[in-house]
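Duplicate of #3305? Posting structure anyway:
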């Protein structure tokens, strides 16, 4: 099979839960970036780029630029990835690397459809029957009461692990929010994300140490992005000295960057994302150098499915993130529902990824420009 054309576009979807406040000053919409790879034999594969959350307006132009390098190539995931990665200076990181991840995902979708297999069976012969998941919500803007209600809602949905955000409100309020989360969860897992890759200005090491002293008594399962993800020295210090497991990695694009984290011992739990960290092949290489992996997800159902297939295929993936800010578009593009039972999600019974995006869906969720959140 040869690649005939590649198209990229952004879509905008409302949240199913209109009370979700994770996007401050938002328009009630979340943007996603989608790539379609078309083959000469008529098969179409879909992929999502995490970068599209922040710059969906660039998807068309970036994909149009990249397709000149790969149209006419065979559907060979490694060769196409290497072609994009080898573009000097710009192919290895940033927006191009994220869009390249989506292209890799779409190619695997095509191969799965062609072979009548789910993607996880293409990735490994020793795939798992399910993967542990955690409910990712706990908006940084939620009050202690809203955190309590949020925790109760995810327990009702079958989750036994919950991640909340801190860092936007004052520390005293944040600690009250953590306290009520722990009380409501009981002995279930509590993950805490300081979102320092987003908050500006980010905490310095001294700030993080002060916060850690107040978090320890609530026994977090991990503490994510306690400082800015580029502050590797501070991440390394906390990993070596904190009594809390340190997590991070969603901001990284390639195996090279993940290797720097590994060499510096910058995290206990690494958090790659198939839609941002090079696609399935690159993430496979990344996970081979880490024992504790928790896949990051912060997109649509397409992003969840891509990371679910990878998680099922990888023995090193311990947890998969399931965003609670569910988008209206998700149910419409999934060929099979994602259901949580006893804190796990089972392997999907689909061909390829299990995603379909029709022209009607594209029109219904047409991109609304400049609707991304402001923090």
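Output from current build:
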């Amino acid at each position: 099979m040869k690649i005939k054309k590649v198209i990229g576009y952004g879509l905008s979807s409302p949240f199913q839960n209109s009370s979700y406040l994770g996007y401050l000053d938002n328009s009630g919409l979340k943007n996603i970036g989608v790539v379609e790879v078309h083959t000469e034999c008529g098969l179409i594969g879909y992929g999502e780029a995490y970068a599209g959350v922040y710059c969906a307006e660039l998807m068309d132009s970036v994909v149009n630029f990249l397709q000149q390098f790969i149209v006419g190539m065979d559907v060979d995931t490694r060769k196409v990835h290497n072609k994009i990665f080898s573009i000097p200076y710009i192919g290895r990181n940033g927006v191009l690397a994220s869009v390249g991840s989506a292209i890799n995902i779409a190619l695997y979708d095509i191969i799965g459809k062609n072979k009548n297999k789910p993607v996880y069976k293409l990735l490994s012969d020793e795939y798992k029957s399910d993967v542990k998941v955690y409910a990712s919500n706990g908006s940084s803007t939620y009050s202690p009461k809203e955190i309590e209600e949020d925790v109760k809602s995810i327990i009702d949905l079958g989750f036994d692990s919950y991640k909340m955000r801190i860092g936007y409100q004052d520390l005293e309020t944040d600690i009250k929010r953590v306290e009520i989360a722990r009380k409501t969860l009981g002995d279930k897992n509590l993950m805490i994300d300081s979102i320092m890759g987003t908050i500006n200005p980010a905490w310095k090491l001294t700030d993080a140490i002060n916060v850690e002293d107040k978090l320890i008594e609530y026994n977090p399962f991990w503490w994510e992005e306690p400082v800015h993800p580029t502050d590797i020295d501070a991440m390394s210090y906390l990993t070596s000295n904190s009594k809390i497991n340190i997590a991070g990695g969603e901001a990284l694009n390639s195996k090279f960057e993940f290797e720097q984290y590994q060499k510096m011992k910058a995290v206990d739990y690494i958090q790659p994302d198939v839609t941002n960290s090079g696609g399935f092949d690159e993430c496979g290489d990344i996970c081979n150098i880490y024992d504790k992996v928790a896949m990051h997800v912060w997109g649509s159902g397409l992003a969840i499915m891509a990371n679910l297939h990878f998680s099922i295929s990888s023995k090193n993936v311990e947890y998969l993130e399931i965003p609670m800010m569910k988008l209206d578009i998700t149910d419409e593009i999934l060929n099979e529902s994602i259901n949580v039972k006893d804190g796990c999600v089972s392997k999907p019974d689909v061909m390829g990824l299990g995603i379909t995006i029709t022209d009607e869906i594209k029109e219904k969720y047409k991109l609304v420009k400049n609707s991304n959140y402001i923090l």
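Confirmed duplicate; merging threads. The first strand starts at residue 3 and ends at 14. The mean pLDDT is 95.
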